[in-house]
Amino acid sequence: MVSLAVVTSHPWSLEAEAVELELGHRFVIAREAWEVAHNVFVTVRFGHTTGLGEVSPAGRWDESVGSVISQLESVDLGRLAGPFDLAGVKELLPPGAARSALDIALHDLAAKRAGVSVAELLGLGGRELPPTSVTLSIEAPEVMQERAKAYADHPVLKMKVGFDGDVDAVAVIREVFGGKLRIDANEGWSGEQAIERLAALARFDIELCEQPIPAGDHDALRDVTKASSIPIFADEDVTTSDDVARLAGVVDGVNLKLRKAGGIGATVAAVHTARALGLEVMLGCDLVSGVSGTAEASLASLVDHADIDGPLLLAHDPYPGVTYEKGTMTLPPGPGLGIATEH
Prior knowledge:
This protein has helices spanning 65-73, 97-114, 118-121, 141-150, 166-174, 191-201, 218-227, 241-246, 258-261, 264-276, 290-298; strands at residues 3-9, 12-28, 33-46, 49-55, 134-136, 156-160, 180-184, 206-210, 232-234, 253-256, 280-283, 305-306, 323-325, 328-330. Helices cover 30% and strands 24% of the residues. It has an 8-stranded parallel beta sheet with strand order 5-6-7-8-9-10-11-12. A 4-stranded antiparallel beta sheet has the order 1-2-3-4. By secondary structure, it is α/β, with parallel strands linked by helices. It contains 11 helices and 14 strands. α1 crosses α2 (97-114) and α4 (141-150) runs parallel beside α5 (166-174). The relative contact order is 0.15. It is globular and about 60 Å long. The chain has 2 domains: 3-115, Enolase-like, domain 1, CATH 3.30.390.10; 134-330, Enolase-like C-terminal domain (TIM Barrel).
């Protein structure tokens, strides 16, 4: 464990701590696997008010626990106009993991000082949340089928694909799960493979497919989208509002994440950009605790599809917040994120 404390300017202080979170099961996608999640928790204090944030840095975006802590160590919170200067975080850090953790903490702090929940601070209090999917990572087909059986009463499952035999694996899942099924290839197919696999998968009533091919080739991605009867959503191809704008006419929708965009504020902006361009929106997550999970759920009412199951994938959640009942998410009572700041 690595921790630090930085006092930037009275009455501000910031602490960051690296924590390993054990997973309930090994989590495998097309390009990598995890036994534990390596996350950074951020505590921001203004006077006697504390805000808590979290991020799970992603090597796919050249992020690590060390790089996030290094960025946070250099932050001067004294540059903010005060505890409600949430837009000011954009001037402190670039989009990405470090800003996301700090932004979540600042929203938690501001909402606490206002005496409201983060959802209420965003003007979203009381709105209905979409059901969240629960993710099946890549395993032997019989293992995936057994796990799918355990979620038979859930409305939505997300299944990782992008491996040899993935079409047959989907068929096995469909034998035991009749709800909505979405798939995520995590860049695991070539353009030609994607068109072939998606055509073969169409008979299984797939709700949507995330990132079928490697990011960076919008022409190829557009070709896949045109050829597929299954809606195509970008994930690794999209981080901020600027990326959303470039994907108009390329895909059917985008999967946004706080970690990619740089926090709550940037994600809300990206949602509005997607809406203006006629794109559907999914709100995704990483292997995170209830801190990030609750922050994500706080703005989930803005999107069409939710994939906010990070806390469900942990062996133990050190910061429980949002609760789950057969895919239905319920936010904790405020103020802030509604999470205790001590283990």
